[in-house]
Request: fold
Amino acid sequence: MAITLTERAADHINRYIEKRGQGVGLRLGVRLTGCSGMAYKLDYVDDVDAEDIVFEQHGVKVFVSPKSLPFLEGTQLDYGREGLNEGFRFSNPNEKATCGCGESFTV
Reply:
């Protein structure tokens, strides 16, 4: 299994990295928080950690730490707009439940 990106997500990431003027990809991780226990964490990567596991698709590198990978394995990252809201969407086969506000999840 792997972490995958839709073309829309890859295009958004590439545009943002170009706008920033630096960066080698996107770091995807999880942190403990919220009413369900975990939340996704995204950061742009300027310096690669030697332990990172790297997935590449549509010309974009996604970096994941070994600690986060078990919770993210098989996740697809998409980017879209719904009404006035736009942002990343996660399709994670490991999710057992999400909180009502949609900000956190349980595995």
Remarks:
- Helices lie at 7-20, 69-72.
- The domain at 4-106 is CATH 2.60.300.12 (Hypothetical Protein Aq_1857; Chain: A;).
